[in-house]
Amino acid sequence: MEHKQRKAPPLPRLYLISSGEEHAHNGTLLLNQLNLLPRSLSCMVQIREKQLNAKELLELALQARAMELPEGTLLLMNERADIALAAGFDGVHLPENGCSAKVLRSFAPELLYGCSVHSASALCIAEESGADYLLFGPVFDTPSKRIYGAPQGLKKLGELCGATSLPVFALGGITLQNAASCMAEGAYGVAGLSIFQDTAKFAETFDQFYLQVNR
Fold first, then answer.
1. Residue 183 lies in a domain
2. pLDDT category of residue 23 using cuts at 50, 70 and 90
3. Contact by Cβ (8 Å): 111, 90
4. Cβ-count burial of 149 within 10 angstroms (0-12 exposed, 13-18 middle, 19+ buried)?
5. What CATH number did the domain enclosing 79 receive?
6. pLDDT at 201
7. What is the mean pLDDT of residues 32-57?
8. What does residue 76 show for φ and ψ, rounded to 5 degrees?
9. Three-class SS of residue 122?
């Protein structure tokens, strides 16, 4: 099946990734975050909980889907297209070495497909597979990504953004202080995990990021 470019409305520019530390039959942090989303501001939300089994993931996904989220918010499941379909999610996010979006689209054409990329060669593969958007990083230093090597930096972010027409979300060490620099390099939006985990400041942080990426 030929891939067709995603139509309007455009993707939200903020991308929230779950903590990776949710417990079975709990999901407290993620559900709290979703409940705290400002009602007028949409975002991308990726559930990335590799420690949960399929049953637990589906349970968490169904809880998230049942919530009243801001209009335009898109729910994505990391890798598991089957769970995304079962929960009525909007899409799937694929790791750089994961299954091809082209393969998954053959049985789930209605889903949105995103791909993580860390190089120009990975970008080409993602484009050829029919990806709808890209996550590029880590742009800045972040403890969770140090085992994978040095941060990519703003220059490489800019080079990758200039080499594709796909929306690129900058990931890794993103803060309120450097988000604007990512946008200046051509990023479509920014993605984060730890920056959104303080639920006491979640709404305020989200508002501030929204202003940074929608100038």
1. yes
2. confident
3. yes
4. exposed
5. 3.20.20.70
6. 94
7. 95
8. -125, 145
9. helix
Residue 106 belongs to a domain: yes
pLDDT of residue 214: 87
Residue 9 lies in a domain: no
pLDDT at 36: 95
Residue 67 has pLDDT above 80, yes or no: yes
Q: Strand 44-47 to strand 133-136: parallel, antiparallel, or no bridges (unpaired)? A: unpaired
Cα(154)–Cα(14) distance, integer angstroms:
18
Domain membership of residue 7 (yes or no) is: no
Number of domains forming the structure of the chain: 1
**Cβ–Cβ under 8 Å, residues 41 and 209:** no
Whether residue 127 is predicted with pLDDT greater than 50 in this model: the reply is yes
Hey, is 11 helix, strand or coil?
A: coil
Least confidently predicted of 32-46, 143-157, 201-215: 143-157
Locate 39 and state its tokens.
């009602």
Structural domain of 184: 14-213
**Calpha distance 191→170 (Å, rounded):** 6
Select from 33, 1, 36 the least CA-distant residue to 113. 1
